[in-house]
């Protein structure tokens, strides 16, 4: 610890040492003051185990929500969850020389140093001023910033200000002494307060350049409630009001109040805080008196002595101690102090008149203007009073209070007094009443444990069994709606509705799924049921479950209140929840919608949970609109119309990210190294209210498809990330369901390895595509070889048939002709028979010649190449001669000779299509298109005729016609694809497609095969 810290610490110990010396030497001691009361605020302490620095005697909070702490170990900042040491990315912080901290009016952190330096932290960056900028080499005791941006530094050599160029010392033109000045205070209005020689107070209003001198002598300024400015008198060190107005009675109390220590601080609610070696003291003005409260280390304070107090406008008070940090804030739930007479694990409650509430056997008056309930002189609600616990309470519409006791009696208390009514004899066996309600006739309904339900009317009890449809078991809850209908809740999702004498049973078949029904309430035409498994709404036909965000199901509901504004208050084992009318409306319109809700729990002063067995209900609304809740620990109340809401949204910040043990600062376009797969991203949100309640959602664009609900977690984890560009976005809510509209974002990328790079993947994709193409080509070649093999077999068969015909039939016919010629030569020339025979022999020669031509045509070696285009053109023109239909021939690409069999089959298919088009289609135009472009041969025949019926297309042919089927069979023989498109009244189109390797004659095929062999480096062979 350096010399400065040692001296500061010694000064704080000196008063305690002097006091010990005085006591040792036997000086008289005055009567002790009354023991301070405990501080009645929600308290949280952080110590070294939580990361808090010790002996933080300087604190400041900036407008972004960071709490800054100056400690011997350095400068720290705190977001309400985690402490972190601030190390600026630029410049030396000179942390061991820090003397004072202050939050600037424009959001920066101002730092005053021991040796004449002023530092500024803004948006995580640090800058400083020193002697070269006009500051003296002198301790900076305080530093401020006005609303106009001017900086002020009070030093041991005078007051200096900075307006953007250079620090300047105040001069006489500003009407303030230029000598050493004391502590400064910049109030919320932008007025600068300072005391000069002899502690005379000066002030400089916002945007003015001339100080005003007051007649007041004071120091240790503090801003209190409503902008009041307080100080300490120099004579007797009492409080003095410097600016603002305070009620005379209250002012007199404050000005005569004996202070514990110097440097007291008012918070924004008007309470006085005093740091002390004995702990922390708080004095509040309540009921025309000042009440001192305290907390010491043994009562939960983080340290033994308090060093500094800081408050903000949202009710939080921060106390720095010698061992950590403490936070005090108002409780939203007010607990009433119950005496030892209030026994039992839970307290039965019932509303009364004029804001009164009955708790057990005592009448509780409404809270006063200071939210206090005077429980010192409570009157009994019944006479004689009830001793012991009470299972339930009920006040009927006439104001009669019904109190069951465990001695099988029921107390009826009205204006005339208390009457004892004996319960039926059966109650002596169970001695417990679960629930009560009343009907429109003045009857009282009572549920007896393990007995069933009874009705008290005209002084007599009767069983409810006379109403068919009502379960013959004790109801767990009863409620009478505004319309007079009675509702009874039972175990296992059963509710009975009694309207007059008609009973309606409601259960799981209508969607009820809350288990044991523990409470029912009817208001504003809404019927709500709460149970062990959640909350449900009944619309008269079906039940709709109402669930909350974050998998909140509102388990164990024993209290429901719908207020006049339509909000629903739910008391369950997880706390008290408020669901707004707007959220309820969304849930009732969309059953899958999860409502947003406001939670009241231990962070609001609530202890215990809703009792599950008895007493029920655990939530009631008093006649003045205040809501009362009974838990397993105590009784609490809240005014739903006086709730303080935090309208500000949290400030979002991405702290950084970690991967493989390495930390990365949150700089945009951050590039992470190769093989980064697992990532941890830290983020936070800053709030002046309750940081623990901030909810988060995040999304990693490029990975997450939807927003991820993180709850209060401030870290996102990702695994198995791929290389690429990402954007991390996070939003937050302020704990009241209001979400930030703008997300904090961080762009980063993960570098790919060689095998993960885009160009490598592209090469792999190209290689894979090339391999697939080669495989396709090989497959196509194999298929072509198979087809051509079959075609060659057909050609060989034709040649064999031709040889057989030539060697048998033609030779035999030739022999017969020769014999007939020999016989004819023997007939005289002038005989008519000879003339006839010669004519027949000539005809036989012609038939034989035609037969030889036919046989020759069957031989492959002599098979002529067919010009398919020319043949189809001739056929089209021939068909057009006797028709009004026009014919067109289109050729795409350079014509190539087709394989003879392919040409033959293609011609046969086209011929059939043309005959159909000219004969049956009634077309105005018929087109034939031949496309020789690689890699396929394509033939299209289309017309604009009446088309073919869908039934014919589905059947494949017309009845007793085989043309369509024959066309498909011909195409199938040569592995061609023949597609038909036709629609009634829209024409017909045939498409014939065959791969080039199969379609073209051997010369073209050989060229393609040799090209493929060159690509595959295969040995080439001559075709045989």
UniProtKB/TrEMBL annotation:
GO molecular function, one term: protein dimerization activity
Keyword ATP-binding appears in the UniProt entry: no
TM region positions: 758-776
PANTHER family: NITRATE/NITRITE SENSOR PROTEIN NARX-RELATED, SENSORY TRANSDUCTION HISTIDINE KINASE
Pfam families: HATPase_c (PF02518), HisKA_3 (PF07730), Y_Y_Y (PF07495)
Domain Signal transduction histidine kinase subgroup 3 dimerisation and phosphoacceptor: 797-862
Domain named Histidine kinase/HSP90-like ATPase: residues: 908-997
Signal peptide residue numbers: 1-31
Domain Two component regulator three Y: 688-750
Keywords attached to this entry: Kinase, Membrane, Signal, Transferase, Transmembrane, Transmembrane helix, Two-component regulatory system
GO cellular component: membrane
Name of the protein in its database record: Histidine kinase
């Amino acid at each position: 610890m350096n010399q400065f810290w040692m001296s500061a610490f010694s000064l704080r110990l000196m008063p305690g040492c002097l006091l010990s010396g005085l006591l040792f030497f036997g000086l008289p001691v005055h009567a002790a003051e009354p023991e301070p009361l405990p501080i009645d605020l929600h308290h949280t302490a952080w110590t070294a185990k939580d990361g808090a620095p010790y002996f933080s005697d300087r604190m400041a909070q900036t407008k972004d929500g960071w709490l800054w702490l100056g400690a011997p170990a350095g400068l720290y900042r705190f977001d309400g969850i985690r402490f972190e040491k601030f190390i600026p990315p630029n410049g030396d912080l000179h942390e061991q020389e820090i003397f004072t901290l202050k939050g600037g009016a424009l959001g920066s952190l101002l730092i005053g140093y021991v040796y004449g330096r002023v530092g500024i932290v803004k948006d995580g960056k640090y800058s400083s001023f020193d002697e070269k900028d006009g500051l003296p080499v002198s301790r900076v005791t305080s530093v401020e910033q006005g609303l106009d941006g001017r900086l002020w530094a009070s030093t041991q050599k005078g007051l200096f200000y900075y307006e953007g160029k250079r620090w300047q010392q105040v001069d006489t033109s500003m009407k303030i002494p230029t000598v050493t000045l004391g502590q400064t205070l910049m109030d919320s209005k932008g007025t600068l307060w300072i005391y000069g020689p002899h502690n005379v107070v000066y002030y400089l209003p916002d945007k003015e350049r001339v100080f005003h001198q007051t007649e007041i002598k004071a120091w240790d300024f503090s801003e209190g409630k409503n902008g009041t400015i307080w100080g300490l008198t120099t004579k007797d060190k009492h409080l003095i009001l410097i600016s603002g107005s305070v009620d005379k009675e209250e002012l007199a109390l404050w000005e005569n109040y004996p202070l514990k220590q110097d440097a007291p601080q008012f918070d924004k609610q008007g309470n006085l805080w005093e740091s002390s070696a004995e702990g922390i003291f708080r004095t509040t003005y309540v009921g025309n008196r000042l009440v001192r409260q305290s907390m010491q280390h043994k009562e939960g304070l983080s340290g033994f002595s308090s060093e500094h107090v800081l408050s903000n406008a949202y009710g939080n008070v921060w106390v720095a101690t010698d061992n950590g940090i403490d936070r005090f804030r108002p409780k939203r739930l007010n607990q009433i102090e119950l005496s030892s007479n209030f026994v039992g694990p839970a307290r039965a409650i019932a509303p009364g008149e004029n804001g009164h509430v009955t708790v057990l056997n005592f009448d509780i008056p409404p809270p006063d203007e200071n939210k206090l309930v005077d429980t010192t002189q409570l009157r009994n609600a019944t006479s004689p009073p009830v001793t012991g616990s009470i299972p339930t309470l009920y006040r009927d519409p006439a104001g009669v209070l019904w109190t069951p006791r465990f001695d099988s009696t029921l107390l009826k208390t009205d204006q005339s007094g208390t009457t004892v009514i004996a319960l039926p004899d059966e109650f002596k066996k169970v001695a417990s009443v679960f629930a009560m309600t009343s009907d429109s006739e003045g009857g009282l309904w009572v549920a007896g444990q393990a007995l069933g339900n009874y009705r008290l009317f005209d002084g007599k009890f009767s069983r409810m069994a006379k109403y068919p449809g009502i379960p013959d078991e004790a109801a767990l809850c009863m409620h009478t709606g505004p319309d007079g209908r009675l509702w009874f809740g039972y175990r296992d999702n059963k509710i009975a509705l009694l309207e007059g004498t008609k009973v309606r049973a409601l259960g799981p078949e209508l969607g009820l799924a809350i288990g044991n029904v523990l409470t029912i309430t009817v208001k504003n035409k809404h019927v709500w049921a709460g149970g062990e498994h959640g909350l449900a709404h009944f619309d008269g036909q079906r039940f709709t479950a109402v669930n909350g965000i974050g998998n909140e199901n509102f388990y164990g509901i024993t209290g429901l209140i719908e207020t006049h504004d339509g909000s629903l208050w739910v008391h369950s084992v997880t706390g008290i929840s408020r669901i707004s009318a707007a959220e309820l409306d969304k849930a009732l319109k969309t059953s899958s919608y999860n409502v947003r809700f406001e939670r009241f729990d231990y962070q609001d002063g609530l202890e215990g949970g809703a009792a599950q067995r008895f007493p029920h209900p655990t939530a009631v609304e008093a006649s003045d609109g205040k809501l009362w809740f009974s838990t397993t620990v105590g009784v609490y109340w809240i005014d739903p119309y006086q709730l303080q809401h935090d309208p500000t949204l949290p400030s979002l910040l991405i702290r950084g990210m970690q991967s493989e043990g390495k930390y990365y600062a949150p700089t945009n376009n951050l590039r992470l190294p190769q093989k980064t797969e697992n990532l941890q991203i830290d983020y936070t949100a800053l709030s002046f209210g309750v940081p623990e309640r901030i909810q988060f959602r995040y999304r990693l664009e490029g990975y997450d498809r939807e927003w991820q609900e993180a709850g209060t977690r401030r870290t996102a984890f990702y695994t198995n990330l791929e290389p690429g560009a990402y954007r991390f976005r996070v939003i937050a809510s302020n704990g009241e369901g209001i979400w930030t509209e703008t997300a904090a974002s961080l762009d980063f990328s993960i570098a790919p390895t060689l095998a993960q790079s885009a160009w490598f993947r592209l090469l792999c994709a190209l290689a894979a595509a090339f391999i697939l193409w080669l495989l396709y080509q090989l497959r196509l070649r194999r298929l072509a070889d198979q087809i051509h093999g079959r075609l060659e077999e057909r050609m060989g068969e034709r040649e064999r048939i031709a040889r057989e015909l030539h060697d048998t039939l033609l030779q035999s016919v030739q022999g017969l002709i020769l014999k007939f010629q020999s016989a004819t030569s023997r007939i005289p020339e002038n005989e008519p028979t000879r003339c006839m025979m010669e004519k027949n022999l000539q005809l036989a020669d012609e038939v034989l010649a035609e037969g030889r031509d036919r046989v020759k045509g069957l031989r492959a070696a002599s098979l002529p190449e067919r010009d398919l285009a020319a043949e189809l053109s001739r056929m089209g023109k021939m068909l057009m001669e006797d028709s009004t239909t026009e014919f067109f021939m289109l050729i795409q690409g350079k014509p190539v000779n087709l394989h003879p069999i392919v040409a033959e089959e293609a011609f046969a298919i086209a011929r059939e299509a043309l005959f159909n088009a000219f004969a049956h289609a009634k077309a105005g135009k018929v087109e034939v298109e031949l496309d020789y472009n690689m890699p396929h041969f394509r033939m299209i025949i289309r017309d604009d005729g009446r088309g073919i019926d869908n039934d014919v297309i589905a059947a494949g042919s017309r009845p007793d016609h085989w043309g369509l089927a024959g066309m498909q069979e011909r195409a199938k023989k040569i592995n061609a694809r023949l597609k038909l498109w036709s629609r009634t009244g829209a024409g017909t189109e045939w498409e014939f497609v065959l791969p080039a390797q199969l379609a073209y004659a051997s010369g073209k095929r050989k060229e393609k095969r040799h090209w493929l062999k060159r690509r595959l480096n295969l040995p080439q062979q001559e075709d045989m």
